[in-house]
Amino acid sequence: MAKYRFVIIGSGWRAAYYIRIAKALPNIFVLCAVYCRSQDKADKLSHDYGINVTTSEDECSLCNPDFVVVSVSKSAGAEVASRWMDKGFTVLMETPAALDIQTITELWKRNLKGQKLVVAEQYTRYPQYSALLKIIKRGYIGDVSCLNISIAHDYHGASLMRALLGVPVNMPFSVFSKTYSFPTVETLSRYEEFHDGRISDKKRRVAVFEFDNGKTCIYDFDSEQYRSPIRRNTYKVQGVKGEIIDNVCFYLDTDNNAHEKEMIIKYRPVDTDYDNPNLRHIKEVEKITFDDETIYEPPFGLCGLRDDETAMAILMEETALYARNESDTPYPLRDALQDAYMAILMDASETGNEVINSTQILQ
């Protein structure tokens, strides 16, 4: 099996995902180096993970990686990605692609010049959502017209929204949104658990997207959903002859008789030696079945990766093949820039009254 070489620029929370993937799949990925600006942080990261960490960008370049992962702050992402593309490397950049229209335009110009940028939009590659998309594409509920989605924030939500509705990337739309604040008991952050009942205000954004082809999405997301055991992800996809609600499909057969079938997800519990409560106990998907058929199995076998890391590993392999000119881009930049644009317009329509009409920003 081919091994794909990569380096990581950045050393934060998201960068650690790529480190864990490389350790879980050593027969597929070779992590050549991790770059960070601070020697103290480099020493700690090297000690914690037993990997090569450097403060030299030249050392990273000399590793001759298939692709470069850029996992830095959102505000610096596009600038750092552009610098590595200018060096001639294929870049896999953490989301979002951009935070403003000017950056969207600049990245598109680089794409037109042949520079290779893949934005790490992984949600459609999640086991559950990739299986859901298969069910929709097989026509069980007919053409999808309406979606209620409460799964992921901003640009991630936009990507899932367009995929589940089957909306072309260039489809004009309008949006209005509003953010509310609700008191919520804190349970789990990125790094620690809370059991003292502390309460803080949490933001919840509700937005309505109306596409010119008549399809509609009601977006509803609270950032606590990513980790909190008392805030769950949920969705409802409605089609002309049925709907799917949280893995249960209600549909009509060819004789217009109604049926109800569930997407069954089989998990394998995995205990790790990580101190972080988010990583200590993992549920790894073994397989997903629907209508007596297996519609998902882990592409790398059982290797102790969570849904998010499995999806990212798939995207990494696809990016490596794209870098080697052995396949097309795994996520077209036009799509990634549209994700970012939709998130920007959600911010712009934050009054809850103003409707923002989209325009074609990429020529």
Q: Structural class, from secondary structure content?
A: alpha/beta
Distance between the termini: 40 Å
What's the number of structural domains?
2
Number of helical segments with 4 or more residues: 10
Polypeptide structure, described:
The protein is of the alpha/beta class. It is built from 10 helices and 18 strands. A hairpin with a 4-residue loop joins strand 9 and strand 10. Helix 5 runs antiparallel to helix 10. The two termini are 40 Å apart.
Give the SSE map.
Layout lengths: L3 E6 L3 H12 L4 E7 L3 H11 L3 E2 L2 H6 L4 E4 L3 H13 L4 E3 L7 H12 L4 E3 L7 H11 L6 E7 L3 H12 L7 E13 L13 E13 L4 E7 L11 E6 L2 E4 L2 E5 L5 E5 L1 E8 L5 H4 E10 L2 E4 L10 H17 L9 H16 L7 E2 L6
Helix pairs in contact: 1-9, 5-10, 7-10
Give me a quick take on this structure.
With 363 residues, the protein is α/β, with parallel strands linked by helices.
Keywords for this entry:
9-stranded mixed β-sheet; globular; 10 helices; Rossmann fold; 6-stranded parallel β-sheet; Dihydrodipicolinate Reductase, domain 2
